[in-house]
Known about the structure:
It contains 5 helices and 12 strands. The protein is α+β, with helices and mostly antiparallel strands. The chain has a single domain (2-14, 17-217), classed as Lipoprotein localisation LolA/LolB/LppX (outer membrane lipoprotein receptor (LolB), chain A), CATH 2.50.20. The protein has helices at residues 2-11, 28-42, 128-138, 143-149, 179-184; strands at residues 46-57, 62-74, 79-87, 100-104, 108-113, 118-123, 150-161, 166-176, 187-193, 198-205, 211-221, 237-240. A 12-stranded mixed β-sheet has the order 7-8-9-10-11-1-2-3-4-5-6-12.
Amino acid sequence: MKVLRSSAILALAAGLSAPLVHAQVSSPQLADVLKKLDAAAANFHNAQAEVSYDNYTRVVRDHTINTGSIYIERSSKSQEMGAVFFNLGPDNKPEKSPAKILVYDGNTLQIYTPGTNQNDIFKAGANQAKYESFLTLGFGGSGSDLVKSWTIQDQGPETLSDGTQQIKTEKLDLVSKDDSVRNLYTHVTIWVDPVRGLSLKQIFYEPNGDSRTTTYSKIRLNKKINTGPYEISKDAQRILH
């Protein structure tokens, strides 16, 4: 599953080429969006959502779709996440058994493959800031966090559906300030709801022309999290990396 190969380790969810450089665009509109994100982050505790990934491979012009769910839980001391991904079967419906389960506790990223009962374990270590800069793109990241990690170009407002209602979002194009991240993704476009501090859509662009489009729906904000779907088998084979 391409999304997990290229980005789960670095982007939690994560190529070699010269980076694409965008200039930081400063505008009253962007300043207002960042201010709203700061306010939303102060009230953010957790979120859970359904998620769909459209993985595009340019060389063969092929789209692979994965579906699943994700949750993010943040406090002043830690940031946690869980994600479960399903491949689509011949009937174009999610298979019964997950293809991958990801769990991140602020220190360790676990990537569990039920089919092989293998649990790959990565210590965040020096990559912790990189991991969490990607997490903040989805849920609860402040405007200050965004500016620290990304050069931002505001591309204006756009209305999207979150599966239940139409939401006014701001379309932001981001270039990482970290060279190693730019080697993975030349830039990332997000559609963010600044009032709630949530991304409804993200597109990650790779140097080789591949891309991954992520859409979130049925987002539950600051509700009790059901962690059952993200549990990793206790008898899984643990592989330390």
